[in-house]
Design goal:
It is built from ten helices and nine strands. It is of the alpha/beta class. It has a single domain, classed as Rossmann fold (3-Layer(aba) Sandwich), CATH 3.40.50. It has a five-stranded parallel sheet, with helices on both faces. The longest helix has 43 residues. The protein is elongated. The termini are far apart.
Length: 346
C-alpha cells in the first residue's frame, strides 16, 4: 500500500524554493544597487581628479564634456618636428571671439576634430578657409564662419550642441561634418554611467557581457549587453544600436534646421589615415550617410570621390593622420559654391 504524500513536506519544499528564488532576486537587486552606486562614485572621483588642459567634464549633460574657454596652447606632434597652435575663445570654441552684430551672414560649422582642425594652425582650419573663399571673387560675400568643432564629439553630441547653439548664434546656414567614427561613443573623457548604461536594464549584467565580448570575442557584440563599447572596432552594421542612434541624431539636426528655416549642408570627410584607393575600407559608410542626406532632402558633399586615388600622405598631418591644409583647401573650394547657392539673400 503506497504512502500518501506528506503535505507538510510538500509545502516545506515549495516554501524553500520560493525563499531561495526570492533571496536570489533580492541579492541581485542589492548587487545591482551597489554596482550602480560604485560606478557613480567612481565617475565622480574621476571628475574631481580631472585636470585636462583642453577638456572639461560635464555632469548630467548630454554633451558629456566641453572645451575650456580662453585656453591657448602649442602642441608638438610626437616623433616629428611639427608644431601647431590653438586658442579657445570665451565661448569655448576654437575661433576668434564670436559676434552676433554686424551686416554679415553667419555659418556654423559643427563637427569633431576634423572641424576643430586638429594638427593645423588657425589659418588652416576648414571654417577659416571657407570664409576666405567666400570673401574672394567670384563670391564677394560677407560671411562669418563660426568653428564649433569639438575633438571627439559624435553625431549625438553634435545634435545636442546645435540645439544649444541655434538660438544663441542664430546662424544663416549650418555645415555638419561627418567623420567615420561618428557612430561610436565618445572616449575622450570618462563617460558618466547614466550615459554609458543608458539602454541597459541592468548595469551589472551589461558590464559583465561587455567584458566577455571584449576579452573573449575581440570586442564583437557576441552577447547583447545593451551597451556600445567605445573601445570596440567600428561596425558597419547599420542596424546596430550605435548606427541607429547616430541616424536618429542626424535626423534631429535636420529637423531642427528645417524648423528654424536654416539650410543644412553635410560634409562627409574621408578617413585620411587610410589608403584613398580600392583599399579604402569605409566606402559603405559614405554611401549610407549620403542616403540619410537624400532621405532628408539635404545637400551633401562627399569628399571621397574628390580625393580618390590621391596619396594619403599628401593630405594628412604628418605623424597624426588628420587632414592637413591641402585637404581642407580642397574641401573649402568644393564647399564654397554650395554655400553660396544655399545661403538666403541677406
Amino acid at each position: 500500500m503506497s504512502e500518501k504524500p506528506n503535505r507538510f513536506e510538500q509545502h516545506t519544499t515549495l516554501f524553500t524554493a520560493v525563499l531561495l528564488i526570492a533571496s536570489l532576486i533580492i541579492g541581485l537587486i542589492i548587487a545591482e544597487l551597489f554596482f550602480r552606486f560604485f560606478k557613480n562614485q567612481e565617475w565622480l572621483a574621476e571628475k574631481n581628479r580631472w585636470d585636462h588642459a583642453l577638456y572639461m567634464m560635464l555632469e548630467n549633460n548630454s554633451l558629456e564634456y566641453s572645451l575650456r574657454p580662453a585656453v591657448s596652447r602649442e602642441n608638438k606632434i610626437p616623433d616629428t618636428e611639427n608644431v601647431w597652435r590653438y586658442r579657445i575663445n570665451s565661448n569655448g570654441f576654437r575661433d576668434d571671439e564670436f559676434s552676433t552684430k554686424g551686416a554679415f551672414q553667419r555659418v556654423l560649422f559643427i563637427g569633431d576634430s576634423y572641424t576643430f582642425g586638429w594638427g593645423v594652425d588657425q589659418a588652416d582650419i576648414l571654417s577659416d578657409l571657407v570664409e576666405s573663399e567666400l570673401a574672394a571673387e567670384p563670391y564677394l560675400m560677407n560671411v562669418s564662419a563660426y568653428n564649433l568643432g569639438v575633438p571627439g564629439y559624435n553625431t549625438v553630441q553634435e545634435a545636442a550642441l546645435l540645439e544649444e547653439a541655434m538660438p544663441r548664434y542664430q546662424p544663416d546656414l549650418v555645415v555638419l561634418g561627418f567623420v567615420m567614427n561618428d557612430a561610436k561613443p565618445q572616449h575622450t573623457v570618462p563617460r558618466q554611467p547614466a550615459f554609458h548604461y543608458e539602454y541597459a536594464t541592468s548595469w551589472l549584467l551589461a558590464e559583465t557581457l561587455t567584458q566577455l565580448n571584449r576579452h573573449f570575442f575581440d570586442g564583437k557584440s557576441t552577447f547583447n549587453s545593451g551597451v556600445v563599447d567605445p573601445k570596440a572596432k567600428l561596425t558597419m552594421d547599420f542596424e546596430s544600436r550605435s548606427w541607429i542612434e547616430t541616424h536618429l541624431a542626424f535626423s534631429r539636426i535636420a529637423a531642427l534646421c528645417r524648423k528654424e528655416n536654416v539650410p543644412l549642408i553635410l560634409v562627409i570627410h574621408p578617413a585620411y589615415a587610410q589608403h584613398l584607393d580600392s583599399r579604402y575600407p569605409y566606402t559603405p559608410v559614405h554611401k549610407e550617410v549620403a542616403r540619410w542626406a537624400e532621405q532628408e532632402n539635404i545637400t551633401y558633399l562627399d569628399m571621397l570621390p574628390e580625393v580618390s586615388g590621391s596619396d594619403r600622405r599628401t593630405l594628412q598631418v604628418i605623424g597624426d593622420g588628420h587632414p592637413n591644409r591641402l585637404a581642407f583647401d580642397k574641401t573649402a573650394r568644393m564647399l564654397a559654391p554650395i554655400i553660396f547657392h544655399s545661403l538666403p539673400s541677406p
